[in-house]
Amino acid sequence: MKLYIETYGCQMNVADSEVVVSILAKSGYEVTNTHEDANLVLINTCSIRENAEQRVRGRLQLFASLKRKGHELLIGVIGCMAERLKEKLLEEEYLVDLVVGPDAYRDLPKLVATAESGQKAINVLLSREETYSDISPVRLDKNGVSAFVSIMRGCDNICAFCVVPFTRGRERSRDPKTIAIEIQKLIDSGYKEVTLLGQNVDKYDWNNGEMKFAQLLETVAQMSDTMRVRFATSYPQHMTDDVLHTMAKYENICKYIHLPVQSGSSKMLDAMKRGYTREWYLERISAIRSIVPEVSISSDFIAGFCSETEEDHKETMSLMKEVGFDYSYMFKYSERPNTYAHRKLTDDVSEEVKGRRLSEIIDVQTQLSLKSNQRDIGKVFEVLIEGVSKKSDENLFGRNTQNKVIVFPRKNYAIGDFVNVRVTSCTSATLKGELPE
Ligand code: SAH
Ligand code: F3S
Questions:
Q1: How far is ligand 1, taken at its centre, from the CA of residue 260, in Å?
Q2: Which of 2, 23, 88, 333 is the most exposed place for a label (fewest CB within 10 A)?
Q3: How many domains does the chain contain in total?
């Protein structure tokens, strides 16, 4: 039996798909890379913004049309849209056979068997305990260099705009012993980089204080000094100095922090229920820079949240410049059903204004990224090689510790090698380099 799985959304979904493949291997499913020869198509979905759901709907339409043409195919929706829309997905026009939420993947063999027998199957129960800790994910990445390891699930933060607490349930941490076992397997099979994942990694807490995130990070860093360690995502309010000191202490912990701020206006941060102010955030940035000087920092921004004024928007742009982010992910606010913002606030910034503000912050970031990259010209970085450049077979690409992509001549190097590269030029998106003599 062949399984084709498509994954949308965050890194957590990528990690979850690997758990799903592992679980379904036990019912005799093996992965295929095309939907054409699949018996079962699973779409691991994202609900974070309306357009993420639209993209999935487009795919569902395609698979439903294949089914109408006579392809014998089971279609499953898993992940956040499954959790959010529940049985509604079975009633819509997409010929969906099964709907499985993020905490119900252990039930997949049974649910798939039900679907195989011609009945619709659904399990969208959320759990307070499930971390899939004993399941050994089947790696779906192509290069065997870099892997995601999930250390927590869910989120208890209830930011006003965010659907994640509703689709992924309560926050829970995974047993550190099983995290270590999973990482040891990666080391043994030649992986060179792990990224520890959680919606809120700094809140990692095993057994009420027995192990916190800084200790977990240290434990993982000590497992192999040639394996890079990354983590995502940090939440400003919970990003503590002990994590920063651990980063500074270990060479193999990458000097990169993704610290979503969302807005530069304290008034908006309050409306978003983020629990910190602009000043608090700036204080965290200076702590980061003083403890881990060579760090690069990226962020997330939402343009046009409820009641955002031109003044608030300007504060966002001024914060961006003040911090000088190396990179950012930027989005137009998209109202999500059942969130606090949907229930209590008014989505009152017009589409046009959202679009204009978004393009203005993108322009600011593009300038900042370019400046950040220009500062790297002439420097030598250790790069972990991830693949062959899309633009030319003659070039390879990889990342430095700061998570910046560097393209350089192939020579005799291979994917998975560490190599020193001197940066010679850049765009706002990439560094180009050469191999020192
Ligand atoms: N803690 C999470 C955040 C998940 S959502 C993590 O691990 O990254 C990722 C980003 O999507 C958020 O930081 C926010 O900038 C954006 N986002 C979330 N909800 C949104 C919404 N309703 N509209 C627009 N952007 C949103
Ligand atoms: Fe969403 Fe805020 Fe949690 S952005 S994932 S509710 S930290």
A1: 8
A2: 88
A3: 2
